[in-house]
Specification:
Layout lengths: L2 E7 L6 H9 L5 E7 L6 H11 L3 E5 L6 H14 L4 E4 L11 H7 L5 E5 L6 E3 L3 H18 L11 E4 H5 L10 H14 L4 E5 L1 E3 L10 H16 L3
Parallel strand pairs: 1-2, 1-4, 2-3, 5-8, 6-9
Antiparallel strand pairs: 4-7, 5-7
Helix pairs in contact: 5-8, 7-8
């Protein structure tokens, strides 16, 4: 099946080339789409160099930092237009280790959405401070309690979607970004009855670059779950 990995970037010059090299070492027929939000550190230029070097790499440039959710929507539309069967999403900072792409790929033969999960049995997080771990754990418990979504890692961004799933979602109606985007996508798929599987991963806090999490993103996720539960558009 044709597979594409969508990787949004903003100021990831220290990571993006290494990440692409690690994915290529898996020796699987993954295509890679880098979506760069006009990174001032030159990430876009490095991405272009990688695309010139490797035929499986493509790059989309955006004019400004427009958000993770809209980057993924553009990537999903690109994947559908080009008839990819499996669409992976992952971060550029090595918190999502490329080796787990193989686990997601195998489970995608049976399930509509496969989640690389930190919070199922054998899942782990490394190098997070206690307050960050409490925030993330608490957020996922909160999502389950409010929405009844039967997923342990609803905020995670390491996922594999089957094409049929994305075709059934009106992508233009997705209202959220950041962590909230991850929650909304999973909720909508669950609501439509698609099969979902969580596979354990070890999530490793970035060693290079700066985290993009903000108070705005956290607050958006907090209120989104009630919009989903109460069907407020």
């Amino acid at each position: 099946m044709k597979s594409i990995i969508i990787i949004p970037t903003y100021n990831e010059k220290e990571n993006i080339e290494k990440l692409i090299e690690e994915i290529r070492k898996l020796n699987r027929d993954f295509r890679i789409l880098i979506i760069d939000d006009n990174s001032p550190d030159g990430t876009g230029r490095i991405a272009d160099e990688l695309a010139g070097k490797y035929s499986e790499v493509s790059v989309l440039h955006r004019s400004a930092k427009l958000g993770l959710g809209t980057a993924y929507i553009i990537g999903f539309k690109y994947a559908l237009e080009n008839n990819y069967d499996l669409v992976f999403t992952m971060d550029a900072d090595f918190s999502h280790q490329p080796k787990y792409l193989i686990d997601l790929l195998e489970k995608a033969k049976e399930y509509d959405l496969v989640i690389g999960s930190r919070y199922v049995k054998d899942g782990q997080i490394q190098n997070w401070p206690l307050h960050r771990l409490i925030l993330s754990r608490g957020a996922n418990i909160y999502v389950r309690m409010v929405t009844r979504l039967p997923i342990f890692d609803s905020t995670g961004g390491f996922n594999c979607y089957r094409k049929e799933v994305l075709e059934k979602i009106d992508l233009d109606t997705i209202i959220s970004d950041g962590y909230a985007f991850q929650i909304e996508m999973k909720y909508r798929l669950w609501e439509k009855g698609f099969s979902i599987k969580e596979v354990p991963i070890t999530f490793i806090e970035r060693a290079r670059g700066t985290s993009k999490i903000s108070k705005r993103i956290i607050l958006q996720a907090f209120f989104l779950v009630w919009k989903l539960r109460l069907r407020i558009n």
